[in-house]
């Protein structure tokens, strides 16, 4: 046991992972937190919050507070924050291991995996054909300054479209929204938006060209329509950011009850419902308490 890196490994420094690490530290456990981007990466793009207790009104403020919390516990010597991407998690009889992309292997009695969900890209959906473009930036991460004055193609009509337009009522922008029939029910909330043109498509081809992208929209009836735009954003929803080694159910999520006993799952990664900041924080805290009580052999 002397070769363990910490009492707890935490993968992902979103609300669930930060809550797990802080709870562990408060119990005098040591924790190593592995984060691929930055602390509270997702929160940094949430412009308005109204459901997080503590009078938080914007995601970036909360992300900064999380980073400050981790820094405080780092100074106490109980939390270490590692920049890196976890590529595998394995539970053994006597330990859990997390392998990072750079080859490092971390070991602890328990690991909390809280990697959340990640944005669906063109390669993840059948209605987009883009052999040379595997990834495009998501709409929900775009700022008003990024898009002001532009004509932008948005692939998919997921909910962040309405949220983005409501959050930026004064921004002069034109969205050509190409969406499949399965997204049809989500278009109601932007049907009256003058900054949006909705285009129901069968299939879309995206090809990079010198000044942007050549888009070909294929419709169920009529000829295909081809044009070139500078900016293409995705808005097709998300998929669980599951790490190899986790048990993954048919919907891609990682149910906690099916994992190795030393591998705990918290936050959005658990399932498609209940994806909220406060829920993730509670989940993360609970995940850190579980091994603590197990070690203490305290019932309940
Ligand atoms: C546009 C938008 C608006 C939202 N608005 C609200 C709102 O108003 N109120 C609300 O309650 N919720 C809101 N949510 C949902 C909320 O953001 C999530 O429920 C919450 O962030 C989930 O926390 P989490 O810790 O489970 O995952 P995340 O916050 O997604 O954190 C996961 C972390 O893991 C990291 N990571 C991923 N893979 C790896 C890996 N392999 N190795 C290392 N690190 C990795 C990521 O970089 C990330 O920092 C919104 C989400 C979006 C996208």
Highlighted features:
binds flavin-adenine dinucleotide, FAD/NAD(P)-binding domain, four-stranded mixed β-sheet, 18 strands, five-stranded parallel β-sheet, 20% helix
Oligomer: single chain
CATH superfamily of the largest domain: FAD/NAD(P)-binding domain
Q: From the 3D coordinates, which CATH architecture of the largest domain would you assign?
A: 3-Layer(bba) Sandwich
What do we call the CATH topology of the largest domain?
Answer: FAD/NAD(P)-binding domain
Which class of the largest domain in CATH terms? Alpha Beta
Structural class: alpha/beta
Number of domains: 2
Beta-strand segment tally: 18
Low-confidence segments, given as residue ranges, are none
What is the H-and-E element order? EHEHEEEEEEEHEHEEEEEEEEH
Strand content: 25-35%
Kindly provide the radius of gyration, computed on alpha-carbon positions and rounded to a whole number of angstroms: 21 Å
Structure description:
With 300 residues, the protein is α/β, with parallel strands linked by helices. It folds into 2 domains: 8-119 and 238-296, FAD/NAD(P)-binding domain; 122-234, FAD/NAD(P)-binding domain. Helix content is 20%, strand content 28%. The chain is built from 5 helices and 18 strands. The chain has helices spanning 15-26, 59-75, 144-147, 160-167, 277-296, and strands at residues 8-11, 31-35, 79-83, 86-91, 96-100, 105-108, 110-113, 117-119, 128-129, 151-155, 174-179, 196-200, 203-209, 212-218, 225-229, 231-234, 238-240, 263-265. The protein has a 5-stranded parallel sheet. It has a 4-stranded mixed sheet with strand order 9-13-14-15, with no helix packed on it. The longest helix is centred in the C-terminal third of the chain and has 20 residues, at 277-296. The protein is elongated and about 70 Å long. The two termini are 26 Å apart. The model has no long low-confidence stretch (mean pLDDT 94). Flavin-adenine dinucleotide (FAD) is lined by residues 11-17, 34-37, 41-42, 46, 49, 51, 85-86, 114-116, 140, 160, 241, 243, 267-268, 275-278, 280.
């Amino acid at each position: 046991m002397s070769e363990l890196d910490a009492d707890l490994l935490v993968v992902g420094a979103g609300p669930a992972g930060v809550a797990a690490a802080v709870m562990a530290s408060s119990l005098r456990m040591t924790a190593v937190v592995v984060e691929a981007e930055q602390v509270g990466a997702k929160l940094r793009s949430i412009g308005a919050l109204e459901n997080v207790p503590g009078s938080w009104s914007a995601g970036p403020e909360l992300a900064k507070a999380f980073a400050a919390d981790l820094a405080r516990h780092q100074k106490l010597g109980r939390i270490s924050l590692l920049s890196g991407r976890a590529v595998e998690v394995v539970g053994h009889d006597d330990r859990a291991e997390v392998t990072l992309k750079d080859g490092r292997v971390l070991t602890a009695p328990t690991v909390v995996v809280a990697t959340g969900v990640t944005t669906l890209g063109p390669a993840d959906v059948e209605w987009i054909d883009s052999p040379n473009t595997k990834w495009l930036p998501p709409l929900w991460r775009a700022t008003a300054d990024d898009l002001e004055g532009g004509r932008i193609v948005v692939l998919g009509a997921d909910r962040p479209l309405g949220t983005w337009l409501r959050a930026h009522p004064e921004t002069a922008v034109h969205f050509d929204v190409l969406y499949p029939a399965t997204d049809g029910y989500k278009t109601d909330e932007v049907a009256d938006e003058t900054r949006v043109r909705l285009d129901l498509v069968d299939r879309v081809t995206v090809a990079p060209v010198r000044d942007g992208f050549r888009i070909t929209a294929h419709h169920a009836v009529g000829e295909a329509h081809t044009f070139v735009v500078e900016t293409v954003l995705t808005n097709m929803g998300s998929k669980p950011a599951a790490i190899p080694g986790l048990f993954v159910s048919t919907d891609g999520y990682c149910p906690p009850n099916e994992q190795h006993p030393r591998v705990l799952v918290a936050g959005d990664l658990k399932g498609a419902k209940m994806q909220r900041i406060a829920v993730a924080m509670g989940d993360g805290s609970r995940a850190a308490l579980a091994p603590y009580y197990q070690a203490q052999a305290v019932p309940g």
